[in-house]
Amino acid sequence: MKPFHSRTKIVATLGPASAKPEVLYSMFNAGLDVCRLNFSHGSQADHQEVLDTIRALNEKHNYNVGILADLQGPKIRIGMVKDGGIQLINGAQTVITTKECIGSEERIYITYESFPKDVKAGEIILLDDGKLQMRVIETNLVDEVICEIVHGGILTSRKGVNLPNTKVSIPSLTLEDRKNLEFVLENDVEWIGLSFVRNAEDIIELKDIIKQRGKTARVIAKIEKPEAIANIDEIIAVSDGIMVARGDLGVEMPMEEVPLLQKMIVKKCRAASKPVIIATQMLESMITTPRPTRAEVNDVANSVLDGADAVMLSGETSVGEFPLIVIETMQKIIQNIEVNNYPFHPEKFLKPNSESFLSDAICDSACFLSKQTNAVGIVSMTLSGYTAFEISSNRPKALTYIFTSNRSLLNTLSLLWGVQGFYYDKFESTDETIQDVNNLLKKLKMIKKGDVIINTAAIPMEAKGKTNMLKITVID
To answer: Which cofactors, by name (predicted)?
Structure first.
């Protein structure tokens, strides 16, 4: 099985720099837990090759590395511009058109057909991650918008466009997203990321499609728009996980607000027992250098201290020069925090009116007992994975060992803080099963004689119901 490195998990985007089997295998062994496939780049054939490589490595080495398929969503871009880019001058005016053309200083093509209908005079347009800024002067509501350049510079082809003040009418699932969704569902990926989520309905629509296809993929809502922040409670409630996508979020909203928004979202996700990923520019300088900046080290460390389930790498591992060193560096930062000053067992309140209140209370009690007894592990059996999500959200110091007969769940659990999954299908009597899984952990040298273990289970075992039993075991 895959070596255990840290409780906080690492998600890494795969690309040309990391797609080779030998590179990917070394990244797995250095601490990579979940592979992200970014559908903003690459063809389905490219992604199929990477998917096959991940699955082959998992099977060959008995690993449970998960896959996150990240759909592009309604990403707005400008079209092609003339070679060398165009020089936008402060105070000058330009026309943004929905009629395809090669962009010049006077006229720029945008891929968003409803742009002239959606924007209003005075609204701000940001290009290339906010490096360039325009203001809408007027729109003909059909195919042209006249803009004044506020902050100019060189604009090159296919750069992204952000509209922080505009109510965008593009659906969350574009036609391209739907094609890619069919592809990832056919490949039975564990996690699907939905970009530019605005409200709970965006997530519900995607989950309905997954359900109709008879698949079990779980949905991660990417938070990167002001509307998502306004609807954050409803989005968390219907999502299976959250990604704080700080790149676009920091462009669409005042950048100084992002650090506190990150902390707020992590806190809400933990309260709801939903995993949360912190993403974007975590070790950005390592795309071209083998050492991070001190500010980047602090950023990763603070995300771990905030209580994130996972920290994510993008260009650092997809196109960077040092994908393996990046994983090793991030792992060192995480381990240093977890060994020296991690805030284990933060306060978490149960919801008495919840349908799962009694099971939640058992999981909460297991974590409390693990702290009181200095237990090395919390061992649980689950079919749905619910117990794993609940125990993980309590951030116990004891490691969480989850045994399941649901093979597809094992890779899903790779995203959860502190959780290690094991395949197990010999559920017999409660005492025999508990003894058996404890012996298995002992055989794997994860626990030893004299260690205290907290076991949870559902009685009767054969019913595979909700967790309702708690036992303290001293390993003999």
So the answer is: K(+); Mg(2+)
Quick one: three-class SS letters along 227-273?
Answer: HHHHCHHHHHHHCCEEEEEHHHHHHHCCHHHHHHHHHHHHHHHHHCC
Q: Two tokens at 128? A: 């290339």
CB neighbour list of residue 294: distance below 8 Å, 6 or more residues apart: none
Q: For residues 35 and 184, state if they share a domain.
A: yes
Domain around 368: 356-475
pLDDT range class, residue 12, cuts 50, 70, 90 = very high
Q: How far apart are CA 74 and CA 196, in angstroms?
A: 7
Domain match, 156 and 186 both: no
Active-site residue list: 36, 77, 222, 280
pTM: 0.94
Could you give the CA distance from residue 397 to residue 71 in angstroms, rounded to a whole number?
Answer: 34
Structure tokens at 306: 């905030």
SS3 296: helix
| Mean confidence (pLDDT) of the chain | 95
* Long-range contacts of 387-390, Cβ-Cβ distance < 8 Å, separation of 24 or more: 387/359, 387/363, 387/456, 387/467, 388/413, 388/416, 388/419, 388/421, 389/273, 389/274, 389/275, 389/416, 390/273, 390/356, 390/359, 390/360, 390/363, 390/364
Q: Could you tell me which residues come within 8 angstroms of residue 26 by beta carbon, excluding any fewer than 6 positions away?
A: 324
Span 386-411, average pLDDT: 96
Residue 258, domain member (yes or no):
yes
Contact indicator for 271, 5 with CB cutoff of 8 Å: no
Tokens representing 372 are 């009181």
Residue pair 299/306 in contact by the 8 Å Cβ criterion: no
Pairing of strands 9-13, 241-245: unpaired
Instruction: Check residue 364 and give its pLDDT.
Output: 96
Q: Which amino acid is at 218?
A: R
User: What share of the chain in percent tops pLDDT 70?
Assistant: 99
pLDDT beyond 70 at 468: yes
Q: What total of structural domains would you count in the chain?
A: 3
Quick one: pLDDT at residue 134? 97
DSSP secondary-structure letter at 81? B
Indicate if the alpha-carbon torsion angle 36, 171, 258, 262 is positive or negative: negative
- Residue 114 φ/ψ, nearest 5 degrees: -85, 5
Q: Is 334 exposed, middle or buried (0-12, 13-18, 19+ CB in 10 A)?
A: buried
Res 413: pLDDT: 98
Using CB atoms within 10 Å of the CB of residue 60, give its burial: 0 to 12 exposed, 13 to 18 middle, 19+ buried.
Answer: exposed
Q: Is residue 188 part of a domain?
A: yes
Task: Report the CATH number that the domain containing residue 321 is assigned in CATH.
Answer: 3.20.20.60
